[in-house]
């Protein structure tokens, strides 16, 4: 038979040696790297020395080969390692990585920062998530669950936890949502509000240059996200054909600590698409092409006076201000996408709406972008005529 190895984490017999008034307890311990090492501790008596030695062995046993995390590590330490790991992988878009960090620091960390990893139990996580869903929002609880699960999954990889407690929590129940699209009257009010905003308010500073109105028209005519509209270049637009077309192949991002720039791809791979746009969107695009006529083909259609990209947050802020002045409520850039999806679904098909919005799944479009009007196809009346009472023969 081959030589049997002592299992990792196992120690041998304890020997004692008196040194003055102290007693030293010693043993041989097989460490995480497979090597046998001598571990010792001193105490006032043999029992005290043995107790201190076993405490030292327990701490040594919980220490893992990675050396960064253990069950006795704080949750704050895990968050630090997790963020470093995200940066090391480099798999996430910068905007997603920053969103994860924001959700972790603002939602999750305040609830867990004083806990050790071994204290983060299924019941504790479950109560936290259900409290968030009940008292804040389902969306916030869902975001918290995502980042907490990712961080604790890293702790499992580092052998600091035996399992991910988030996976054992009760599934969050999503409340029913009602998709709301803009009506024709709503759209008219939005157009009037952005046209009138700051035109005759007497305030100092340059007046609006018309870009906000044109951005709204392009969003309404293309279903593009606000970042995708702001990322349009001269070379992405063709107004010489009928109907005019534009290629959606980038987006504007503003990562924390980095200057706003055009990302060479939109949100997802399925979001890269070429769409035909109606006449009102084509007219807005022609105005922008005239404004940047002297610029190279790679120039952005929508830009600041210095030629730098407009940030999505700044455009949203301007739109909110314009609508607030006109007392138009509940309108966001995303409402334009829902409106496009609803119109295309009613007059065309749900599949066409999903294709226009750049969704990989029709179910996403149906669940989050199409307003249900509750009207059943009138063809049912003709189909049910067969149930009419028969005339007496």
Automatic annotation (TrEMBL):
Gene3D superfamilies: 1.10.150.130, Intergrase catalytic core (1.10.443.10). PANTHER family: PHAGE INTEGRASE-RELATED, PROPHAGE INTEGRASE INTD-RELATED. Belongs to the 'phage' integrase family. Residues 73-156 form the Core-binding (CB) domain. Pfam families: Phage_integrase. It comes from Nocardioides endophyticus. PROSITE patterns: CB, TYR_RECOMBINASE. The keyword Lipid biosynthesis does not apply. Residues 177-382 form the Tyr recombinase domain. This is Tyrosine-type recombinase/integrase. InterPro entries: CB, DNA_brk_join_enz, Integrase-like_cat_sf, Integrase_catalytic, Integrase_recombinase_N, Tyrosine_recombinase_XerCD. The keyword DNA-binding applies. Keywords: DNA recombination, DNA-binding. SUPFAM superfamilies: DNA breaking-rejoining enzymes.
């Amino acid at each position: 038979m081959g030589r049997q190895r002592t299992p990792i984490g196992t120690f041998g017999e304890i020997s004692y040696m008196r040194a003055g008034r102290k007693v030293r307890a010693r043993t041989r311990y097989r460490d995480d790297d497979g090597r046998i090492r001598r571990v010792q501790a001193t105490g006032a008596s043999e029992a005290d020395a043995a107790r201190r030695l076993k405490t030292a062995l327990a701490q040594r046993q919980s220490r893992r080969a990675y050396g960064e995390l253990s069950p006795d590590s704080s949750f704050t330490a895990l968050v630090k390692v997790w963020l470093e790991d995200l940066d090391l992988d480099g798999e996430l878009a910068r905007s997603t990585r920053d969103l994860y960090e924001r959700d972790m620091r603002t939602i999750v960390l305040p609830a867990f920062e004083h806990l050790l990893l071994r204290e983060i139990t299924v019941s504790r996580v479950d109560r936290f998530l259900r409290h968030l869903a009940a008292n804040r929002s389902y969306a916030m609880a869902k975001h918290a669950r995502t980042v907490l699960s990712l961080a604790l999954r890293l702790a499992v990889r580092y052998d600091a936890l035996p399992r991910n407690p988030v996976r054992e929590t009760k599934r969050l129940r999503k409340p029913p949502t009602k998709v709301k699209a803009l009506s024709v009257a709503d759209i008219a009010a939005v157009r009037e509000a952005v046209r009138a905003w700051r035109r005759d308010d007497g305030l100092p500073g340059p007046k609006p240059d018309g870009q906000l109105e044109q951005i709204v028209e392009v969003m309404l005519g293309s279903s593009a996200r606000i970042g995708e509209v702001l990322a349009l270049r001269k070379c992405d637009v063709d107004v010489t054909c009928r109907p005019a077309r534009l290629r959606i192949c980038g987006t504007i991002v503003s990562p924390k600590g980095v200057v706003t720039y055009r990302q060479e791809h939109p949100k997802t791979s399925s979001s890269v698409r070429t769409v035909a746009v109606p006449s009102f969107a084509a007219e807005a695009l022609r105005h922008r092409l005239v404004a940047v006529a002297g610029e190279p083909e790679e120039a952005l259609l929508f830009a600041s006076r210095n030629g730098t990209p407009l940030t999505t947050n700044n455009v949203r802020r301007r739109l909110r201000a314009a609508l607030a002045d006109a007392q138009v409520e509940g309108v966001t850039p995303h409402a334009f996408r829902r409106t496009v999806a609803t119109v295309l679904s009613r007059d065309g098909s749900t599949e066409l709406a999903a294709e226009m919005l750049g969704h990989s799944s029709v179910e996403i479009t149906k669940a989050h972008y199409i307003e249900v009007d509750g009207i059943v196809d009138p063809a049912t009346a003709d189909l049910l005529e067969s149930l009419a009472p028969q005339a007496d023969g």
